[in-house]
Amino acid sequence: MSLEAQDHHDGAAIAARTERRWAIMSVVIIVVLTLLAVVAGLHQVTMPQARVETADPARLHLAGEFMESNLGTEVGADGAVTVRAIGQQYSFTPACILVPVDTPITLRATSADVVHGILVQGTNINTMLVPGYISEQFMRFHATGDHLMPCQEFCSFGHEGMWGKVRVIDKAAFAARAKAGGRLSCVGE
Questions:
Q1: Do 82 and 141 sit in the same domain of this protein?
Q2: Same-domain status, 36 and 127
Q3: Which residues, other chains included, contact 11 with Cβ-Cβ below 8 Å and sequence gap of 6+?
Q4: pLDDT the model gives residue 188
Q5: Could you list the residue range(s) of the whole structural domain that residue 40 is in?
Q6: Among the residues of the chain, which ranges form H helices?
Q7: Would the pTM count as exceeding 0.90?
Q8: How far is residue 20 from each of residues 10, 65, 100, measured CA to CA in Å?
């Protein structure tokens, strides 16, 4: 065998060995990632969520936390601000949520019919509203102003018109409005 043929044979052997190693590494990576996905999926299925709250979507407006008179922003006796809302085809109730600036706020929401989503534009607030379950989202706004709140889960033919608004106002103005009691919203403003 000539020297040139020997070099060609050695080069081909090295290339074949290198390709085989990369192929084995690729298969190993795929197998490891698949095993990780299976283990994570099985763990998620066998471990319940830390806290799951349910609500009967057929009776939301009749009694309990999500009846009509409880919707909107509430200031608790301890000063905690809680917003309760419902998503239903094709609106949010209340359509305009009023909250104070620089205050921790708890959003508690659910759906009366199909899966909806609350996305407060310009923020990282994004949660799904699933019928029968209560979603809880913690939020804080650092500046006053209005934020659009579209439904971000396709909920049928009227989905594109399902919008709400979050109005963030000064703490003093919010406190003055909260003194009157009841649930606050900015609907009609």
A1: yes
A2: no
A3: none
A4: 75
A5: 1-47
A6: 3-46, 171-178
A7: no
A8: 15, 63, 63
